[in-house]
């Protein structure tokens, strides 16, 4: 795919890919977002302080001063969560932020313990679902990709990706299914290797000589690295070598380089 992305293609191409990415990411992520945000807003769950005291900070961080202390037996209301801190309301109407570590011994209204889950390197290593968005170079053209993966085991993931390719002389779409091997899932900087197959559709833009759209099978091998940042966020760097199985006598070899972000669920 020769050429680089031109300015006149950018707006149309990005809007088309945005719709594609939104369909994939929002469909899968919306229930999770609703489960985190709307759960607090709609139900305002309550808990009972079982430790001798609970320290309320003015903001979500240890650098914020402690301005109030709730006592043992006080019923607190959980209002929202932010990066390991929970905003709570006391019976006296005081609202402040409490670190999740202080909430581990709180009880629900029935006397049962509450699971305040923290995301860290352990959850990164054992992640099951992953959603992401990447951009890069596809044989001299620009490529934008939305992808999702499901981990069969900590070492093996099935990944589905939808891409749009943007060039000076032709545009294209590509869908792939890959098998990703993660030899060291517990590493913060975790390498991976992959093989896969898919379909690529090319739409030439030339008007001087009429060219036909074409659809071909494609196979690829690749490697990359996942870099765990914090919480549920990952930086993903990847290289793929594609072989386009054309209907002509010779196949095409195309290099793809891309980088992006992912979240795991």
Structure report:
The structure is a single chain. The protein has 2 domains: 168 residues, Porin; 62 residues, SH3 Domains (SH3 type barrels), CATH 2.30.30. Helix content is 17%, strand content 52%. It contains 3 helices and 14 strands. An 8-stranded antiparallel β-barrel has the order 7-8-9-10-11-12-13-14. A 4-stranded antiparallel sheet has the order 1-4-5-6. Strand 13 and strand 14 form a beta hairpin. It is elongated and about 80 Å long.
Mean pLDDT: 80
How big is the Rg?
Answer: 24 Å
CATH topology-level fold name of the largest domain: Porin
How many extended strands?
A: 14
The spatial strand order of the largest sheet comes to: 7-8-9-10-11-12-13-14
| Amino- and carboxy-terminal Cα gap | 35 Å
CATH architecture of the largest domain: Beta Barrel
The top-level CATH class of the largest domain is Mainly Beta
Topology:
Blueprint: H1 7-43, E1 46-48, E2 53-57, E3 66-71, E4 75-82, E5 85-89, E6 95-99, H2 100-103, H3 121-125, E7 129-138, E8 141-153, E9 156-166, E10 170-181, E11 189-204, E12 214-230, E13 233-245, E14 252-264
Antiparallel strand pairs: 1-4, 2-3, 4-5, 5-6, 7-8, 7-14, 8-9, 9-10, 10-11, 11-12, 12-13, 13-14
